[in-house]
Amino acid sequence: MPGPVEFPTSQLVTRLKKVSILGALSPSQLKSLAKWAKVVGYDAGKTVVKRGDRGNGLYLILEGAAEVRRGEHRLARLGVGQFFGEMSLFDDLPRSADVVTVQPSKLVALSKWEFWGFASSEPSVVLRILEEMSRRLRAANRAIEN
To answer: What is the CB-side half-sphere exposure of residue 36 using CA atoms within 13 A?
Structure first.
């Protein structure tokens, strides 16, 4: 069962700096984001998001690893500094895949409302997410073509 994890702000800021979409933010910007962040711990083998469920936010991987799955097919393996659930920031459609932890993990959960509260003052984060979404879409297209 996932549960909240205590993280000192200074340690959280250091970990957030390693997340690909946040790397260009200043320490003060990261400290601001840390105020919105909820750190949650998951044991290995736990489903974080389930395909078909309504998405309401983004997850950032601070520790551990997770797999993106659709049925029995592994679509991607994600580790420290990566994120998932970004599509739910832009629409209210159901999740398109399951994400399951493959080792004990600590994730930052940002709801859509928390994310947009932060992003309204840091629009560069939105651009980084859109760039990553484009990269992921292109990779999916290549996989379908092969």
So the answer is: 22
* Distance from C-alpha of 22 to C-alpha of 121, rounded to nearest angstrom: 14
Q: What kind and span of H or E run contains 125?
A: helix 123-145
Query: Where are the domains positioned within the chain?
Result: 3-145
- Helix or strand (DSSP H, E) at 68: strand 66-70
CATH class as words, domain 3-145: mainly beta
pLDDT in tens, 103-145: 999 999 989 988 888 888 888 888 888 888 888 788 877 877 7
| Torsion 114-63-125-28 (CA) sign | positive
